[in-house]
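It is worth pausing here to work through a concrete case rather than discussing structure prediction in the abstract. The textbook approach is simple: state the sequence, then state the predicted structure, then interpret. We follow exactly that order.
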Amino acid sequence: MSARSILAKSAIVALALASIGGAASIAAAQDYTVYGQRPGTKLQLVPYRDLNLIYRDHQSVLYSRVGLAVRRVCSFDKGNIPVIDSDYRVCRDDAWQGARPQISNAIGRAYQLARIGRSPRTNGYVMVDGR
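Step two, the predicted structure:
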């Protein structure tokens, strides 16, 4: 290897290291927002790996599982009466509002996978939270 090619490779490595260092300093100067659950929020993950969501019966099973999770995170099992307890109704409505798009996405993904010849069963879950 000639001295010229070694020098050229060294210059490329030095330039790459300098650009990485510059990118790191730019990234360090940026503000980041981290989204998460509020303290005291109940959360339940509803898996659907065992379901083939292209079938309506399996979709119904997922909706039933999510309904149970909604009742759990909204403290229905602690004696709240859904007809009377407005806190329960607000929690239930919020939980379903968050879960429905996830269910729709899971069903859509199952159809996409089936369309390209892959198994529509995926290792996923619906996240249900009580606010």
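Step three, interpretation. Confidence is low (pLDDT under 50) at residues 23-28. The helical segments are 3-29, 56-73, 86-115.
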